[in-house]
Design brief:
mainly alpha; 2 domains; 8 helices; extended
Length: about 180
């Protein structure tokens, strides 16, 4: 049955893809275009373009469109095509859901353990260091090429900390200021 094939294919893609939606695309293409021959290369390219334009993760959007298209090619009714979309989308999300659920259960189970607390207290400075390293990389002269960028950065920090301005307003104001300055 095509629904089981859709489910298994996208479940496997969800399990073996690390790195987000764009990392999924090559595996999705290999499965649905090359191996199963469900859609053409041109249709896959169109689906990727549509998936980039619609809100949400590109891998999930692609699975939704492909699930619909595969069932539609069989000549099924529209509600069966929607079921195909649901099947592919559910299958690609399910592995991540299971992994996060397992992590949450492990966290709630071991959060009172002194060993766990020790590991977490050791990881906190490491995470802060990684975030700090990323920030330092972003503020090097190669990434902040001129004084205008530094002024925008300082202004954003000032309005955030001194006046406690809403971050969304700060981002919009920074975008407008950057548009005007550049």
């Amino acid at each position: 049955m095509i629904y089981l094939e859709l489910f298994f294919t996208f479940f496997v893609i969800g399990i073996f893809t690390i790195g987000g939606g764009y990392a999924m695309l090559s595996l999705i293409q290999a499965q649905v275009v090359t191996q199963h021959n469900w859609i053409s290369e041109q249709t896959f390219t169109d689906i990727v373009a549509i998936s980039q334009m619609t809100p949400g993760p590109i891998g999930i959007n692609s699975a939704t469109y492909i699930g619909y298209s595969v069932i539609q090619q069989t000549g099924a009714a529209q509600w069966m095509c929607i079921l195909g979309s649901f099947t592919a989308t559910f299958a690609i999300v399910l592995p991540s859901f299971i992994i996060v659920l397992a992590i949450c259960r492990a966290y709630s189970r071991f959060s009172s353990s002194t060993l766990f607390k020790g590991v977490m207290s050791g990881l906190r400075p490491a995470v802060i260091g990684l975030i700090g390293a990323a920030a330092i990389i972003l503020i090097t002269p190669d990434n902040f090429p001129d004084w205008k960028s530094w002024v925008l950065f300082a202004a954003a920090v000032a309005v955030s900390f001194i006046w406690n301005l809403n971050p969304i307003i700060t981002i919009i104001a920074g975008g407008i200021a950057g548009l005007l300055l550049y």
